[in-house]
Amino acid sequence: MTVIEQSGYDYQLEIDRLRDRFQFDFVSLALVQPAEDRFVLTWQYASGNHNERFKRIVLHSGKGVAGIVFKTGKSMLIQNVNADIGARDLFNFPIIAAEKLKSLGALPLWVEARVMGVLLAGFREENRMNPAVFNDFREQLGVTLGAFRIREVSQT
Amino acid sequence: MITMTGDRLSEMLDKLYRNGTEAIFFMDQKGGVVGMNPAAERILEVDVIERIQSGIDDSFCQTCEGYTDEQELMSCSRCYLNYPKGEFSSFQVYLRTRDEGIVPFAASYHTIDEEQGIRVLMLLDLTKQLKTQEMLQRNHMLKYVIKAQEDERKRISRELHDSVAQELLSSLVDLRVLKYMNVSDDVLNKIQQTEQSLTRLLDDIRHLSVELRPASLDDLGLEAAFRSHFKWMEKNYGLLVHFSAELAAARYSNEIETVVYRVCQEAVLNALKYSGLDEVYVRLWEENGGLQLTVRDEGVGFNMFINEAQGTGLGLYGMRERAELVGGQFTLTSSAGAGTTVQLSVPLSQDVMQEGDRS
Question: In what residue span(s) does the Histidine kinase domain sit (chain B) (predicted)?
Answer without folding.
Answer: 163-350
